[in-house]
């Protein structure tokens, strides 16, 4: 009769099964993709996910600004559009007055400059009457400053037109008005970017983008 040195050979089966499960779990966890990177902007959220191996990156952006922020954005966009219209009107009137032969008469130029001055002051009053969200208090003050500069430039342009100045004051004032209008529009765009809101005319909602990094 053969001698069995291990009277209980089955006792090694369970430890071997446990070791196999541990090894499988370790290998499986190592093969899992890394956690995706999330980035969030005020008023909206942006999630970017990168899949290891195939170089594919997908980005989902949800632009849902706070209702108070959205209402404020609508107001300043309207004011900005009005300011750009006044800038166009002032520039065209000034260019026509300086043209040779003169395309805009003195009386017509005065009327146009006065209209720009009045409309710009109304826009400034409208802007000063807004109550911005707390997070946009500083950008709002910059908007007020830019529009105040535009209103001052409109007055200077009219004064230069109706004075004995040879045209230097008027032309400089028109240039200052244009600079203020452009600065105002730039500040509005910065506010839109900071709040995560879509630009004027762009639909709000989710937007998915996928691209491949590197060549094949």
Your description of this structure?
The protein starts with 12 loop residues before the first helix and ends with a strand. The chain is α+β, with helices and mostly antiparallel strands and 216 residues long. It is built from five helices and four strands; from the N terminus they run αβββααααβ. Helix 3 runs antiparallel to helix 4 and helix 4 packs antiparallel against helix 5. Helix content is 59%, strand content 12%. Strands 1-2-3-4 form a four-stranded antiparallel β-sheet, with no helix packed on it. The C terminus is likely disordered. The chain has two domains: 33 residues; 129 residues, Up-down Bundle (Four Helix Bundle (Hemerythrin (Met), subunit A)), CATH 1.20.120. The chain is rod-shaped, with a radius of gyration of 33 Å.
Strand order of the largest sheet: 1-2-3-4
- What would the principal axes of the Cα set say about the shape? rod-shaped
What distance lies between the first and last C-alpha atoms, to the nearest angstrom? 69 Å
Classify the beta-strand content into a percent band.
5-15%
The CATH topology of the largest domain turns out to be Four Helix Bundle (Hemerythrin (Met), subunit A)
